[in-house]
Predict the 3D structure of the following.
Amino acid sequence: MVFESWRTMQGIGAALVIGSLVACGGDKGSVADSAGSNAMAASADSTAMMAPAGAHWNATLQSMAGTKVAGTASAMAGTSAGTTMAEVTISGAPANGEHPWHIHSGTCASGGGIVGPATDYMPIKADASGNGKSMATVNIAAPTSGDYHVNVHMSPTDMKTIVACGDLKMGAM
C-alpha cells in the first residue's frame, strides 16, 4: 500500500498493527502481513500512486464458520487524494445483526492486517431479512497492486469469528 505521506504514516503504522491485532482477534498472520504492508510502503516514494483510471477492486464474499453469510465487496480510489472508497454488501446474516468488516492485506487463506484505520469502517447493519450494506472512506491511497481481502466478522463482541471472506482482485469498473 502506498501512503500519501509515508513519513507521517510510519509512526501511525505501528499503532495500526497493534490496533488491527486487537480489532481482528490477534491472529498470527496479522503481524507478519502488516509488517509486509509497511515494508511495501517503505519502498515507495512519498508521492501517492493512484490506481489506473477506472481501476476497481472486486471480491465475492464466501460463507465461513458454518454461516450462510455471503456477498460482494469493492474498492477504488476515493474522490479525495489519498483515500480509498470501499463498499460491502451481504445477505444471509442473522436478522438485525451488526457485523464489523475491514479490508486486510494478504488473502483469505493467508490473513493480514487491516488496511487503514479500523475506525474508518462502519459496521454492516443487517435488516430483518439478513441483508446489509456499508460504505467506507479509508484514509489511505488506493492500492495499485498486491493481495487484499475483505473479512466480515460475526459481531462487535466476536471479532475472531469471520463469517464471510473474499479476495479482492483488480478489474475494470
